[in-house]
Amino acid sequence: MAATPHRIVIVGGGAGGVHLATRLGRRLGRQGRAEILLVDRDASHIWKPRLHEVAAGTLDSGQEQVSFVVQASRHHFRYWPGEMRGLDRTRKVIQLGALADRNGAEVLPARALSYDTLVIAVGSRANDFGIPGVREHCSFIDSRDQAEEFNAALRNQVLRCLSGPDAATLDIAIVGAGATGVELSAEINTALDFAAGYGVGDIRRRLRLTLIETAPRILGALPERVADAAQKELRKQGVTVLTGAQVVAVDAAAMHLKDGRSIPAPLKVWAAGIQAPAFLAELDGLESVRSRQLVVRPTLQTTRDDHVFALGDCSFLLPEGEKVPMAATAQVAQQQAEQLARGLEAMLDGKKLPEFRYKHGGALVALGHYNAFGSLGRLGLLGDGTFIQGRFAQWTYVSLYRRHQLGLYGFWRSLMFWLADLLRKGHAPRVKVD
Fold first, then answer.
1. Residue range of the domain that includes 114
2. Beta strands, E only, 115-154
3. How does pLDDT run across 253-288, given as a tens digit for each residue?
4. Which has fewest Cβ within 10 Å: 14, 125, 326, 402?
5. How many CB atoms lie within 10 A of CB 290?
């Protein structure tokens, strides 16, 4: 009687999870050495660093999404729809909650799924820090659904503004000047520039966009030169940038700051801080930190269970000799997925798991169609720390996404996607206007 293949369950189909499932499928699933299951509540994946484009309406998520069913069939793993709610480490079983549609109707009941090796890659979301009114009155763009919901609200607000008096303004406030908040600010300006080109009034002139950051400067995780250049470009576009400004309350009409100021804005986005999903905080005794991230060793194994791994934004890895943990970026998640794919294959061969070594590929921020700035890392051709801007920085930024596609599809299918993108840009609208 043939032995049952080792079952590897990956929870979360973000940048790390879908890369890991694809690589393990190619390495182990194809040969029948392991059964690879990818669990996600959504049926498709979209690269999270592009969600700000979906929110602004400059990216069609339907054209960029990766279908889990199609990806699984082509790369020898299985897709399992569901959302993790709990864990029984003794029985090696995860609990999946009931799956409902957008109207709340139950599609699938609560279920249990067994594993031999479990990898948790459920990502993160913005942190409201318990500030009154944030959840009730702010939009979030941590998922495609949220990004599309904000885009619908943005287009509705544009229509209200254009149908109002000439003095009517389009007021938007964004809290959090990390990469998401900064790029969204610029992308909204880009979208309104494109919309004006299609005859949508003088809406760009009416925009009053405020970017609010608690820290002394924007883009705290990026080099100061990159942040300074980005802030100058944002102000050139007309964005009001407030640093050292703490939001203490939010209501339907405005953001309220600690110093007593109020920022009027019917459209509000919260893009500050990160925290992992709530269920990770008490997951059958696994060690977590205040942000709910699971603490992992350099092998990416959780500290209290060798059979449970975590990677990407939901993991907390403090490299030896460092004072800050690994950043919650797609670049880190993809590198961890690549290492873990090799590591799990080695583990099945009875070999020692390798430790994760991050190779910094640089820090980049793209400000819509206006400009881009960055600092190259050790992977850069011009040397570590080289400051770049303009066309070359924009090309380098786009190349990060191209590498993401290359890892998922391989060279020839990726090449077809790149050619299709060029053709679409030649005839399709540059912004969602209906």
1. 6-125+275-348
2. 117-120
3. 999 999 999 999 999 999 999 999 999 998 999 999
4. 402
5. 8
